[in-house]
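Below is a filled-in request sheet from our internal design queue. Each sheet records the structural input a requester submitted and the sequence that came back. We keep these sheets so that new team members can see what a complete request looks like end to end.

REQUESTER: design group, bay 2
PRIORITY: normal
MODE: inverse folding
CHAIN LENGTH: 831
BACKBONE (tokenized):
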């Protein structure tokens, strides 16, 4: 990178073997494209074949195949066909689900498919971004999306938004001249354009210096591709649990077959029907629906979008929270608290707006300000500082709209990271004035005069000491500060002049960034859970120390460190400092990545949040990656969750939701076990009472697919809570004994009675043990009504197809057994 930004564009073009007037020829482009293409490798993109291969790794698939083979071997074709249809349905559903997730990633393909105006063989032509090569001469204008890393050759008022790559949250002005000094981060390079940036104004041309995965954006994406993809642990864990339970139930069935009279070899159909009962419940459908329901519920109630369902379980083992101060512990807003001018400190509500110094101070804050405002409805939009100044001006009848009209802006100077000052040049009634605000140290170094009681005089060392002392006092109170200055011209200055010199210092405005009311409590809860919070902030070191003590995170100044201090350390010294630091202030994105990587290499499970593409590596390395208020679709898709709320609140909500999900899964598995156990006992009793007469596969399919599948789902979603082992045993006995009585007393129509009883008991169990009738729970009630409708239609269909009729005694016994189940269920529930 240094070879490009610290060199003239003429030498860069020459080193790349290109020609600024003709560009490359097509033949050379083809050769270079074969060596290194400009296609960006997007994360987690899988072909359909890869998806199929992943599905083939699932253990349950082979269990189904063995079961189908068993049915076919013994000529049990109806069961084989039904089971094969189920597994086919499950596979189609899973493939559709995974392909749908993949299609969400396809929206990122615009990183590869933008069109670029390029010079080749002396002719300007439009080409796809993918066909760019190193050495191409490209043109760009307003709204162009930069498709490669480019060294600027010609610049005409170019301003670029590169937040997505560098993370710097302001529009940058770019030039073609070489840079003499080294830089600490790519955000300080002002003669290059990076892939993924957007031209906001101006036009120019440049030479492509890096393509594809070697661009800065490509390196970020490559980090993601090289990290291990997090698997859907909860789903995998659930699949294994259900598979183990199913195998245990098969063993129970085999043992019952051995216990009941009759030769085991004569009970092949009985064994098959028991296995059929175990496998014909749509568990994958339940898991997908349950996952979607939980995701939607969390989004609606907690404002969290979950991309990786495993994040619920991953949140259990977190040891470190990497957090930004603003948005988690302090509000995303500032308020003017104090002002300094005329060698005095003023409280925000005790100023005389007629004082010429204070008036000038507020004027500059409102004029040198890019916030958007509407005087009619007091609407203001912009960054925190600018909104605070505009709002404070409005409170003193200094309206931004009116000031912009009377102080028409001519231009704004480039803002660099090394000299953090914003300067605008405005046309006033008396001429032209440069209005500057920003970092106090940088501003004072550009000031030669000071405004005292409306009179300009030379700035002395004594004045500087007073100013810095006032700033120090503000910092000790945890206030954020900016200095303000101006310079008057009797002619229209040019942007090429050294305008930020010979400035007149006016004063300081100190702003308060209010903490959330529960910030201290949040930190206490994190520490009480055995988790270490590590905070990043843009405060200076003194302000950060005040903040850290206020929230109860630090006890001494050694626990706060700044980016400047870290840059000067060796690797060994860095590790020593990082082990003690709890708050990092004003550190570069590269240093933040380095700090997080140190914890990652030591095996710590941590949470990290990000807002820009520059935070991709942090989010992808984290056990739980959080995208915050991100305009970057790539970051949103890579992160485990996306939220616009506090990451602390989101983290604790995830932990709470995990317990709910675990309880729900346990309830669903419990009911699955109860109902299948009931069916196994029922089949064995039926075989015993009817001398081996078995014709149950269609009834089992109806019960399990139409009734039991939604009932398990309802139990998982709306169950009342965890039950004791005694209650579970009693519920199981009810499900086992009552159908067995029905088979004993109603041998002639046992198949239909079992369908009637099992379906009825399942629905009654929902009414007793689930919260489907709670206020506002329309979804649960709707699901219950759908289940009841399926139950009724199943009975009607069986009566119609098999022309079976109920006798009075059959109806009386069935109704009596259902009443006993209802009564027993209520007793168990209240016990």
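RETURNED SEQUENCE:
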């Amino acid at each position: 990178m240094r070879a490009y930004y610290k060199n003239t564009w003429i030498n860069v073009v020459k080193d790349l073997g290109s020609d600024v007037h003709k560009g490359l020829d097509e033949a050379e482009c083809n050769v270079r494209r074969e060596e290194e293409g400009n296609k960006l490798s997007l994360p987690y993109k899988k072909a359909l074949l890869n998806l199929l291969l992943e599905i083939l790794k699932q253990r349950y698939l082979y269990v189904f195949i063995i079961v189908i083979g068993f049915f076919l071997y013994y000529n049990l074709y109806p069961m084989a066909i039904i089971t094969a249809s189920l597994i086919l349905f499950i596979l189609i559903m899973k493939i559709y689900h995974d392909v749908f997730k993949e299609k969400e990633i396809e929206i990122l393909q615009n990183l590869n498919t933008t069109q670029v105006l390029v010079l080749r063989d002396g002719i300007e032509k439009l080409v796809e971004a993918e066909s760019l090569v190193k050495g191409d001469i490209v043109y760009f204008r307003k709204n162009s999306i930069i498709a490669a890393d480019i060294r600027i050759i010609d610049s005409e008022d170019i301003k670029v938004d590169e937040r997505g790559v560098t993370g710097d949250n302001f529009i940058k002005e770019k030039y073609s001249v070489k840079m003499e000094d080294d830089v600490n981060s790519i955000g300080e390079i002002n003669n290059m354009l990076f892939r993924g940036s957007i031209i906001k104004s101006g036009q120019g041309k440049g030479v492509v210096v890096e393509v594809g995965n070697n661009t800065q954006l490509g390196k970020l994406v490559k980090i993601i591709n090289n990290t291990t993809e997090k698997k859907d642990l909860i789903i995998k864990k659930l699949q294994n649990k259900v598979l183990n339970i199913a195998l245990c139930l098969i063993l129970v069935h085999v043992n019952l077959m051995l216990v009941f009279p009759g030769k085991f070899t004569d009970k092949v159909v009985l064994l098959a029907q028991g296995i059929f009962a175990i496998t014909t419940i749509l568990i994958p459908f339940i898991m997908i629906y349950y996952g979607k329901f939980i995701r939607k519920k969390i989004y609606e109630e907690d404002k969290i979008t979950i991309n990786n369902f495993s994040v619920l379980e991953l949140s259990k083992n977190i040891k470190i929270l990497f957090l930004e101060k603003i948005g988690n512990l302090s509000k995303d807003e500032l308020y003017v608290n104090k002002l300094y001018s005329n060698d005095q400190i003023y409280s925000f509500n005790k100023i005389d707006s007629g004082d010429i110094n204070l008036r000038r101070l507020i004027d500059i804050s409102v004029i040198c300000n890019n916030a958007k405002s509407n005087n009619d409805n007091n609407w203001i939009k912009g960054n925190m500082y600018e909104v605070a100044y505009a709002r404070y001006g409005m409170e003193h009848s200094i309206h931004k709209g009116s000031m912009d009209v009377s102080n028409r802006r001519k231009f704004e100077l480039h803002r660099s990271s090394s000299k953090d000052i914003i300067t605008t040049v405005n046309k006033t009634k008396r001429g032209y004035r440069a209005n500057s605000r920003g970092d106090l140290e940088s501003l004072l170094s550009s000031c030669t005069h000071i405004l005292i009681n409306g009179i300009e005089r030379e700035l002395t060392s004594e004045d500087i000491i007073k100013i810095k002392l006032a700033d120090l006092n503000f910092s000790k109170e945890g206030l954020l500060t900016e200095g303000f200055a101006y310079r008057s011209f009797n002619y229209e200055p040019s942007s090429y002049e050294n305008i930020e010199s010979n400035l007149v210092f006016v004063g300081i405005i100190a702003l308060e960034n209010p903490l959330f009311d529960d910030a201290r409590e949040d930190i206490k809860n994190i520490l009480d859970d055995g988790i270490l919070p590590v905070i990043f902030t843009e405060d200076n070191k003194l302000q950060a120390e005040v903040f850290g003590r206020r929230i109860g995170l630090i006890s001494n100044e050694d626990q706060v460190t700044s980016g400047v201090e870290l840059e000067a350390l060796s690797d060994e010294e860095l590790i020593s400092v990082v082990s003690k630091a709890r708050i990092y202030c004003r550190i570069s994105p590269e240093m933040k990545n380095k700090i997080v990587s140190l914890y990652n290499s030591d095996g710590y499970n941590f949470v990290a949040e990000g807002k820009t593409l520059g935070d991709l590596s942090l989010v992808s390395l984290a056990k739980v990656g959080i995208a915050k208020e991100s305009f970057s679709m790539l970051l949103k898709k890579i992160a485990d969750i996306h939220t616009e709320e506090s990451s602390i609140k989101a983290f604790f909500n995830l932990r709470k939701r995990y317990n709910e999900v675990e309880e729900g899964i346990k309830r669903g598995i419990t009911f699955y076990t109860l109902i299948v156990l009931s069916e196994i006992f029922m089949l064995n009793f039926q075989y015993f009472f009817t001398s081996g007469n078995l014709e149950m596969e269609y009834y089992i399919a109806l019960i399990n697919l139409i009734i039991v599948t939604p009932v398990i789902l309802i139990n998982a979603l709306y169950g009342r809570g965890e039950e004791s082992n005694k209650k579970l045993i009693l519920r199981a006995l009810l499900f086992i004994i009552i159908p067995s009585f029905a088979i004993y007393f109603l041998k002639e129509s046992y198949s239909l009675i079992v369908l009637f009883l099992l379906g009825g008991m399942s629905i009654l169990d929902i009414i007793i043990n689930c919260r489907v009738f709670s206020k506002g729970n329309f979804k649960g009630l709707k699901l219950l009504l759908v289940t009841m409708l399926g139950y009724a239609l199943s009975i009607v269909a069986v009566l119609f197809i098999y022309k079976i009729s109920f006798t009075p005694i059959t109806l009386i016994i069935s109704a009596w057994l259902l009443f006993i189940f209802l009564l027993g269920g209520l007793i168990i529930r209240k016990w």
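SHEET NOTES:
- The chain has 31 helices and 26 strands.
- The radius of gyration is 35 Å.
FILED BY: M.R.
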